[in-house]
Amino acid sequence: MNNKLFISMAVLLLLTGCKSDERVLEKLGMVQTSSYDLLENNKLKVTSCIPVIDPNSTIRRELLSTEVDSIKEARLHFSRQTDLKVVSGQLRDSLFGEKLARAGVENYIDTLLRDPSIALGVRATVVEGDAGELLTKIFQPHTDTGRYITHMLEKEAAGNSIPATTFYEFSRDYNDDGIDPVTPIVKDAGNKAVIDGIALFQEDRYVTKIPVDDGIIFGLFRDDLRQGEIAISLGQEDGKQVVVMFGSLLNKRKVKVHHLGDGRFKIDLSASIQGSVIEYTGQQKLDEEKSKKKLEKQISEYITARARKMVQQMQQYNVDSLGIGVHVRNSLSYKEWKALNWREVYPEVEVECQTKVTIKDYGKYS
After folding, report:
1. Counting Cβ atoms within 10 Å, is residue 325 exposed (0-12), middle (13-18) or buried (19+)?
2. How confident is the model at residue 9 (pLDDT cuts 50, 70, 90)?
C-alpha cells in the first residue's frame, strides 16, 4: 500500500513539474529569419520573421521589428508586439545590413552563439543596403521572404557558387589567425532578391566582395569541391561568341609554401579540376584528342587568370579569405609564427595560381 501511495505521489509531482515547461505549438512564435541593421544613432534595428502556421489564415508570416541597444533586448520588445511566445530555436538565417557588417559583426554573432536555443548551423549573410527592408518586402509569388532567401542560399551553396557560412564557421575563422571569414551577399534587385557575391571580411569587418560570377572560382581555390559548374567565355570565333559550360566539377586544391628568407614567402596555389563539358558553342570537334587538349588548356588559362585577379584583390584589401596563412603557419614553428605579423606580411606574399583541367566527358558522350 505504501508503495502504491509513493508511486501515485511521484506521478502527481511529475505532472505538476511538466506544466510549467509546457509549450503549445500554436502559442509559439518560432523565428526563422532575423535581420540586424546599424542605425544613425548607433541603435540596432532588429527585424524577425515568424511563419504563421494556422492553415486557415491568409497571412503566411508575422513580422516584428524594433530599435534596441542589444539583440537580447529585442526579444523583450517582441513579446509586447505579439500574442505568441517568441522563441529562437528554429532560427535558420541571420541577415546583417551592410553598414553593420562594415562596422563589425563579431559581438552580435557571439551574443547569438551564447544562446543555447540557437543552433551553430544558423547561416550568416550580408545584405547590400538595409537588411530589414529586404526581409519585410514581398517578392511575388513568394509570400515569405525569409523562406525564399533561405531556399535560395541552400540551393546555391549546394552548387558551391557561394559559401554556406554558419555561425560556427564564421566564429571559427574569425578566431583563427591564419584565415579571414566570408559570407554570401544578398540584395534587392527590384522584383527579386538575388545573390550578389561573396563578402570578404578582415577579422569581423566586411571590406570588399568577390563578384557572383567568380564565386565558383573562389570555391575552387579555397577548398576541395565535389560539385559545381562554371560558364566560360573563350572569345569570338568566326564572329560568334564561344562559350563553354563546364559542370560536374571535382576539384582538389593544393597549397605549397616556399620560404624565401627574411620573412618572405612564395605560395603555389593549385587547383586540379575534372568536369564535363555540357555545352560548347565553338567549332572544335571535341571527340578528337587534339581538340580536347586545346579546350582543356583554354579553360585552365581562363580560370587561372580569374584566380590571379581575385588573389590580387584580396591582397590589396589585406584579407586572407583563402586561408593561405593557415598553411604558412603549419610550415613554421609556434615561436616563428608568433614572431611573424601575418597581417603585415600577407599583402607582399608572392602567390602563384595554377590550374590543371581534365575533361572527363561531353555530357552523355565520353
Report:
1. buried
2. low
- Length reported for the chain: 366
Per-residue pLDDT band for 96 (boundaries 50, 70, 90) equals very high
- At 81, the pLDDT band (50, 70, 90 cuts) reads confident
* Grid cell for residue 357: 583541367
What are 200-223's pLDDT values in tens digits?
Answer: 999 999 999 999 999 999 999 999
**The C-alpha cell that represents 319 in the structure block:** 584579407
Encode 200-220: b = buried (16+ Cβ within 10 Å), e = exposed. Answer: bbbebebbbbbebebbbbbbb
Strands 123-127 and 93-97: parallel
Burial class (CB in 10 A: 0-12, 13-18, 19+), 177: middle
186, pLDDT greater than 60:
yes
Q: Would you put residue 303 in left (φ > 0), alpha (ψ -120 to 50) or beta?
A: alpha
SS3 track for the chain: CHHHHHHHHHHHHHHHHHHHCCCCHHHEEECCEEEEEECCCCCEEEEEEEECCCCCCCCCEEEEEEEECCHHHHHHHHHCCCCCEEECCCCCEEEEEHHHHHHCCHHHHHHHHCCCCCCCCCEEEEECCCHHHHHHCCCCCCCCHHHHHHHHHHHHHHCCCCCCCEHHHHHHHHCCCCCCCEEEEEEECCCCEEEEEEEEEECCEEEEEEEHHHHHHHHHHHCCECCCCEEEEEEEECCEEEEEEEEEEEEEEEEEEEEEECCEEEEEEEEEEEEEEEEECCCCCCCCHHHHHHHHHHHHHHHHHHHHHHHHHHHHCCCCCCCHHHHHHHCCCHHHHHHCCHHHHHHHCEEEEEEEEEEEEECCEC
- Checking if the pLDDT of 49 tops 80, the result is yes
For the cut 50, the answer to whether the pLDDT of residue 20 exceeds it is no
Q: How far is CA 121 from CA 91, 93, 165, 169, 178, in A?
A: 9, 9, 8, 8, 22
Contact 278, 363 (CB under 8 A): yes
Query: Are 216 and 160 contacting, i.e. CB atoms less than 8 angstroms apart?
Result: yes
